[in-house]
Design goal:
90 residues; single chain; 0% strand; elongated
Length: 90
């Protein structure tokens, strides 16, 4: 069975993510743990999703749309973290 996902939340999440990255940088999304310096902070990912959901004009987004948007935001952040790691030579 095919699944229909509201891509408006994904688009708004990406837009929100890019705005936060420009304003605060990748370090904002990373945990402040010295043992795991490049680990994502889950609360920051959720903040992106909550902000994107509030910016939408429609009501509360469907759970599958939120899960898909979360996956896309995490994927983008992981890609950027890996790029930073490669740039620093880790």
């Amino acid at each position: 069975m095919a699944q229909i996902i509201d891509l408006a939340l994904v688009a708004e999440s990406r837009k929100t993510l890019h705005q936060l990255l420009e304003e605060r940088g990748i370090a904002y999304f990373l945990r402040r743990d010295a043992r795991r310096p490049f680990q994502l902070e889950p609360k920051k990912v959720e903040q992106v999703l909550r902000t994107a959901a509030r910016r939408r004009e429609r009501g509360k987004p469907h759970l599958r749309a939120v899960e898909h948007a979360r996956t896309e935001v995490r994927r983008e952040l992981i890609r950027r973290v890996v790029a930073e790691m490669l740039q620093t030579g880790l």
